[in-house]
Amino acid sequence: MASLVPYRSMFGIRPFNTSLFDAFDDMMDMASGASSAAFPMDVEDTGEGYEVKAYLAGVSKDDIDVELNEGRLSISVKVEEKDEDKNKNYLQKEFAAFSATRGIYLKDASNEGLSARFADGVLTVTVPKIVEKKNVTKVSID
Question: What range does the record give for the signal peptide (predicted)?
Fold first, then answer.
């Protein structure tokens, strides 16, 4: 009989009386290892620039670092376990300290006018594009 709450033991493996599909899911969870801490991102070209959304549920603003270096936008997250959590007697604890970095290359990104906001677990970074100034001077021919 299936339960409503997914079971995970200390090592991330279910008891042997589960289905083959559950066992396969457990193997995939263990194989993904550190990559499971990575966060999803959406990148949209708005015409005048880019809007990058990183979904960071459970992360505070102070744990996020955003950099733009020669067109490479990096979003880094480092969440550390709080001291008060270490002293509690958990029966099961699934949230752990982690760090993850995601990056994307935006070839025509401008450092001027760059902005970021964090609300409801979503980091939104607005990156304007470099505006090419056309210094074209029409020369009349005599």
Answer: none
